[in-house]
């Protein structure tokens, strides 16, 4: 909070100093005249551009003074109800706000002789705000892909005749057994087993018949 307050005070002081540095001091009626009855004060005021922060400097002799009055008193040259009165030969009046202000000389008869001036203060001119930069829209053109080079794709070559397995047909005809040849006889062990079975069956048959008688 304290830091924020300090920052705001610094900004206010900086603004005041900038305004003071940019302020213009206007010597009323100058440079060829002054606050007197011989200068066309309203013509002089119309040729100036008073801005907020400027200063009016009244320089006059001892038989004159400066009286700030209302619009109606300005028109009628009445100084009996002044807003502010100044004297002393040199008076500096700041212009802190925009608007119209009215000044006359309070010495009898001097206002009617033209010793009066209307000051129109304008607001401080400021540079126009910078317009936001508009970035151009992004290009909607889709980049076209480069055509593929034919050399990049592998070229299929026909198979080499030497690489393929060579199938040579056999010239030998399948061997067939000669017609009329007998099949191989069974082995001797199988023949002996069959002979033993027959003897056993015959023996059992004979024993059965003997018991029957």
For this entry, give a set of tags.
213 residues, alpha/beta, 5-stranded mixed beta sheet, 3-stranded mixed beta sheet, 8 strands
| Average pLDDT, all residues | 76
Instruction: Return the structural class.
Output: alpha/beta
Radius of gyration: 67 Å
Terminal CA distance reads: 144 Å
Count of distinct strands: 8
Approximate shape: rod-shaped
**Helix percent band:** 25-40%
Structure description:
The chain is of the alpha/beta class and 213 residues long. The chain has four helices and eight strands; from the N terminus they run H-E-H-E-E-E-H-E-E-E-E-H. The chain has a five-stranded mixed β-sheet. The chain has a three-stranded mixed β-sheet with strand order 1-3-6, with no helix packed on it. It is rod-shaped.
